[in-house]
Design a protein that fits this description.
This is Integral membrane protein. It comes from Streptomyces sioyaensis. By secondary structure, this protein is of the alpha+beta class. It folds into two domains: 130 residues, no CATH class; 118 residues, no CATH class. Helix content is 25%, strand content 20%. Strands 5-6-7-8-9 form a five-stranded antiparallel sheet, sandwiched between helices. The longest helix has 15 residues. 33% of the residues are buried.
Length: 260
């Protein structure tokens, strides 16, 4: 778990941290890296940022953006391994302290008041707040795609009964056809950074996360794809390999940004 600093109104009790780079960012916040940066009031620099979420001595929520991406990455890796890591970005690396949290947290710092937004100061932006988790929309659609990527085997098992979807699956669905057409257009007209991301999968395959206006797709380069649409709450459309999907996924993987 994250370690915390000693209490002081000017210091931060660190609760968690996330990376904000073209290849790795909280999908819930946007379809691509520039969109997420714009929502946080940050310039979309290629090197990216680390976002440190915590509370001050009064319990107020703050999100600190630092250019020291490697420090934040090391802290996250240590916490994931159950190790302690004192995440204290140097002042020279901090590019902004934003009121509020962009993500929902279920933890709080000990021995300080309960989490709350800091009192507004003249000229300050509105406090950050996580997207509404109740109603279906772009944020929930992207979270759904993330969940499929993390639980690929379980989702894949649900379609294995149909001979592994050797046929095109839901490709005849008009919404899915639109998604595939827009994804193909990315190959000749690359989208903003982060709309196509590639990460490790089993064997030599890659997991692709592809987003566009009103849709998300998650796929494995050696397998099928799943499509989610804003206009169809909670629906997941499998798309079988067919004759065209393998080439499309390979082309998307070539233009995708990848974690360093």
């Amino acid at each position: 778990m994250p370690t915390t600093e000693s209490a002081d109104n000017d210091q931060l009790f660190v609760l968690t941290a996330v990376l904000l780079t073209p290849a790795q960012f909280p999908s819930v916040l946007g379809d691509d890296y520039p969109e997420v940066c714009a929502g946080l009031g940050l310039e979309p620099y290629a090197e990216g940022y680390g976002l440190v979420l915590g509370q001050d001595g009064d319990g107020a929520r703050w999100t600190v953006a630092t250019e020291d991406v490697s420090l934040v990455a090391c802290a996250i890796a240590a916490w994931d391994c159950g190790m302690e890591y004192d995440l204290s970005p140097g002042e020279s690396s901090i590019v902004g302290a934003l009121p509020g949290w962009p993500l929902a947290l279920a933890v709080a710092a000990p021995e300080v008041p309960a989490p709350h937004d800091p009192p507004p100061q003249e000229g300050d932006p509105a406090p950050l707040a996580p997207p509404d988790a109740e109603a279906w929309g772009p944020a929930q659609r992207r979270l759904g795609a993330d969940e499929i990527a993390m639980q690929w085997a379980a989702w894949r098992e649900q379609v294995d009964g149909d001979e592994g979807f050797a046929e095109p699956g839901d490709e005849a669905h008009p919404g899915v056809r639109r998604v595939l057409d827009e994804a193909r257009a990315y190959v000749t007209d690359p989208p903003p950074p982060g709309r196509v991301r590639s990460s490790f999968a089993a064997g030599e395959a890659r997991t692709l996360r592809v987003d566009g206006p009103g849709w998300s797709m998650v796929a494995r380069t050696d397998d099928i794809a799943f499509v989610l649409l804003d206009e169809e709450p909670g629906e997941v459309h499998p798309v079988g390999r067919g004759p065209e999907l393998p080439g499309l996924l390979s082309s998307l993987d070539e233009l995708a940004v990848r974690p360093v």
